[in-house]
Design the sequence.
């Protein structure tokens, strides 16, 4: 895992102080690659690449940026897991190194821009094609590895982290549309970020610069072409085989590997399979909040470790840890995204980095197999509607009120969500109901200067994704999971990347292997979500790899943080001090009104969390604009 960056003048003119600019980007991403750095500049000084290296494979890997000796240069972050097979296809006798970096260069020479369709892995790279005078950049199918870019004074700058681009923008400003997205979903849509003028290259997309023109296009899409010809048993067997193969590929490394083990289904499956394949070198890492059982599922992690026979390292996370580290978390994230889980994940990554350079995680299964409780809530409402209308037993329903009732115990801790969901009515169009279910803006009031945010509608962008042509409209379940796969998952992967790289740790996610994803998209909802059981087909496929206590779990947690309880202690003063420091400086948030609302949130609410992250983000970046500017 590494950090990449670079600059290209779109008019092919020399860039003043190019080496200095590349060095600055390297320094701002130094945590991503503590084992080395490199810089390449074209003799014309109109383009240059920089690279920070985290050494995972100790073979003759070569350095980066790397050339193929024909004038092509590459800076690359990630892992191509099928690099061994590609080397054979590309004639390994012509290789100078044993690295997957050289595989990308050779693959581009053979297949051109289609090379990305041959890769299995996580990647973000920029490749300069000297003979064609083209810059070719690509990001993996799911957004596991990041890629940001901006254009300032006809110079394209790109980097693995948005913070590395801040020295070059005219001013650090908030993107108002991205801000509105964040208030609604706690992440941005359609390539926006919270920084005005800085975009992310979307997952499954490439960016090319040809004759000074930037062109962005999609190279991969997931299509929900449902397969009604096969049985649940067939899909279970295919899932088991593909996931086993993916874990095998993700274990390719010359250093020992560990895993995040939350005690939930997904991380337990990955850890169990990896342990079976690696033996006694495997270790797991888990965190807990021993304040209450509502925030502690470590007993399941211990049960898995004992059942599987691997060593488990535990971390008890406290309010003092929050006070000491939350600023670092926001800094490394670049901008706020998703829920409070980023904080404990940062702490566990810190623990893991003391013992391993590579860890596996369970990210992705919830979005592809249907693991979020809100799917159950959405179908519960539809069951009520169907029972009233007398249409419950038509072919359009994948669950009935008879079958869903035994699974409703999973909603025990979600009564506040149900209350909020039904506060303003029921039984609208399905897209509006799901938007209502995930919309966090209603919890916000006069704290936000809504008039300053303009007319942009997050709902319109939501609809474009929710009603996309690659998802059949006959399945509410597929539309919900597809939206989360396209939006929430990249946000969670942003966290996964940043909190691991903050500690020089590489995180790999075996569920996100495109053969498995493409299979999952063909599985009918009545198999994935049978009787309203979340991730039913995955659970059945991997039953033999799990202890019964985890296989039978219904109390999904998702790493909640006891912020409300901590706010009754010394954390309250810490949070109040943060908001009090800028009660009159912010244009978009009234911090005084935020202070007045502290202590009034329900147990698992995210209002204070979201606003706290925004204020810390302002302090870490907006208030430091002069410091960033002075770097160049």
Sequence:
């Amino acid at each position: 895992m590494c950090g990449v960056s670079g600059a290209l003048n779109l008019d092919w003119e020399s860039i003043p102080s190019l080496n200095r600019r590349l060095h600055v980007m390297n320094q701002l991403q130094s945590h991503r690659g503590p084992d080395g750095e490199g810089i390449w500049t074209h003799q014309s000084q109109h383009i240059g690449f920089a690279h920070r290296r985290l050494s995972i494979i100790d073979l003759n890997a070569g350095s980066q940026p790397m050339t193929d000796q024909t004038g092509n240069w590459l800076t690359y972050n990630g892992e191509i897991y099928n690099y061994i097979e590609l080397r054979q296809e590309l004639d390994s006798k012509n290789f100078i190194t044993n690295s997957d970096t050289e595989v990308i260069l050779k693959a581009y020479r053979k297949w051109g821009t289609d090379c990305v369709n041959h890769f299995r892995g996580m990647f973000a790279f920029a490749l300069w094609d000297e003979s064609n005078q083209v810059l070719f950049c690509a990001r993996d199918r799911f957004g596991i590895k990041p890629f940001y870019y901006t254009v300032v004074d006809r110079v394209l700058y790109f980097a693995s982290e948005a913070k590395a681009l801040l020295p070059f923008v005219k001013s650090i400003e908030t993107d108002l549309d991205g801000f509105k997205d964040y208030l609604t979903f706690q992440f941005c849509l359609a390539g926006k970020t919270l920084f005005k003028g800085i975009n992310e290259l979307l997952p499954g997309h490439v960016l090319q610069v040809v004759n000074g023109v930037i062109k962005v296009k999609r190279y991969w899409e997931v299509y929900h072409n449902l397969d009604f010809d096969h049985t649940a048993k067939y899909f279970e067997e295919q899932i088991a085989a593909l996931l086993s193969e993916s874990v095998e590929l993700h274990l390719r490394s010359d250093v020992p590997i560990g895993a995040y083990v939350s005690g939930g289904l997904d991380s337990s499956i990955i850890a169990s399979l990896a342990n079976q394949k690696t033996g006694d070198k495997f270790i797991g890492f888990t965190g807990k909040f021993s304040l209450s059982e509502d925030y502690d599922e470590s007993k399941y992690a211990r049960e898995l470790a004992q059942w599987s026979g691997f060593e488990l390292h535990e971390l008890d996370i406290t309010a003092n840890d929050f006070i000491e580290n939350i600023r670092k978390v926001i800094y490394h994230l670049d901008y706020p995204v998703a829920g409070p889980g980023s904080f404990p994940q940062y702490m566990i990554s810190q623990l893991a980095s003391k013992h391993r350079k590579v860890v596996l995680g369970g990210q992705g299964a919830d979005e592809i197999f249907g693991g979020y409780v809100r799917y159950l809530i959405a179908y519960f409402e539809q069951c009520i509607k169907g029972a009233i209308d007398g249409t419950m037993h038509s072919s359009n329903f994948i669950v009935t009120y008879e079958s869903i009732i035994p699974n409703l115990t999973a909603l025990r801790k979600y009564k506040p969500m149900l209350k909020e969901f039904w506060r303003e009515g029921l039984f609208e169009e399905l897209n509006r109901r799901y938007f209502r279910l995930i919309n966090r803006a209603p919890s916000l009031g006069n704290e936000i200067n809504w008039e300053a945010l303009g007319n942009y509608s997050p709902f319109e962008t939501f609809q474009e994704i929710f009603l996309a042509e690659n998802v059949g409209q006959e399945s509410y379940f597929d539309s919900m999971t597809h939206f989360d796969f396209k939006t929430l998952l990249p946000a969670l992967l942003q966290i996964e990347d940043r909190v691991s790289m903050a500690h020089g740790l590489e995180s790999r996610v075996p569920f996100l292997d495109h053969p498995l994803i493409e299979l999952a998209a063909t599985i009918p909802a009545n198999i994935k979500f049978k009787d309203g059981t979340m991730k039913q087909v995955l659970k059945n496929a991997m039953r033999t790899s799990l202890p019964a206590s985890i296989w039978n779990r219904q109390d999904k947690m998702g790493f909640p943080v006891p912020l409300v309880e901590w706010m009754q202690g010394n954390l309250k003063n810490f949070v109040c001090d943060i908001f009090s420091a800028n009660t009159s400086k912010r244009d978009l948030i009234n911090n005084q009104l935020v202070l007045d609302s502290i202590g009034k949130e329900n147990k698992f609410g995210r209002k204070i969390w979201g606003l706290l992250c925004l204020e810390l983000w302002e302090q870490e970046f907006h208030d430091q604009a002069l410091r960033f500017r002075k770097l160049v």
Summary: The two ends are 26 Å apart (CA to CA). The longest helix spans residues 232-250. The CA atoms of residues 366 and 594 lie 33 Å apart.
